[in-house]
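Mods, move this if it's the wrong board.
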Amino acid sequence: MWEFRGPNEENDLRHLDLILIDQKGDPIYAEILPNAVPDLKSFLEEGKIIIMSKVTVERAKPGYRAVENPYMIKLNTRTCIFPCAETINFPKYTFSLTPFEILPQYIRRTDRFLDVIGKITGVSNAAKVYNTSGDPMMRRVIRLQDLMGNVIELSLSGKGATEFPAEAVLDVGQKHHVIAIFVGTLMKLYRDEHRFLSETSACRWYINENDIPAIKTFQKRYKIPFITTDGTYSLEFIFFEKKGVELIGKTAETLHKQYDLNQIPPQISELIGQKFSLVVTVSTKRSINRKDSSFEVLMIKERFGKQPIIPVFRPEITIAPDSESTTISHEKDLPALIAIPSKKSNAQDPDEAK
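Not the wrong board. Structure tokens:
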């Protein structure tokens, strides 16, 4: 549930917006006009199961869609809202994740909001800036990284910049994964060169929520990069998920439980000097900004065992300079998730709404 006040948070309320989810998990956008808000808002709470009557159903708006549904609901002064007395299990979250690699195609598009998942690798301080109208506002930048190493910055403005639990994220991030889903964002382009995600009034975040399968899957996914060589040159080869388990013989979760953060499991160190015949494909996502290509392993064709150690000729990898932000440890596989409160947790328990 969120308030829409236009481009400035200090403007008058234009409408109160909701995302409703039915028992099957199908979401729909709902809107309450200002004249009905005083009568209805007290009956609405994120996570609360309700029964509504006397609502109108209309075609969904052509732009700024929070969910994929051809219809929307409008609540009015005649709408009746009752709490549901029965104990019913409803889905807690709804989102449609957009991969980082296709985000550029949404630059300046406003047909729908974008939802993303990534590991938080950096958080800036909240700083005062001025918008295009010359009004002061607070802004904070979050750096996100996907499983392929792609990075995108997310700009939080106004209340979002100050409400984001930066200290908790930075504290947890020194020893643990910080995996977050951000919903309700738009893709922007600054001065025709800097691509970034921008918060909207519909933006919410879910950080290290253990009951969200997408976050657990992201955290547990195997990714083992190796620098391999034939004696003349070296390139990066990456083993993902099942291929990683096939190579190591154990799951990532098992290794996390058996070894400390600073330990290299012997199952991995023993692979140094091993010779393999592999079937690979070029990893376009990781190779696009590099001088040398990176390859994803599709099949381990043959193992030849331990070979004499050959000097490694490391490829040159271009790394973009860090912006002025506090960086979190992110080069290691880290242990289990530690929960961090969601946005406005004191008033919102997102059981039913985005």
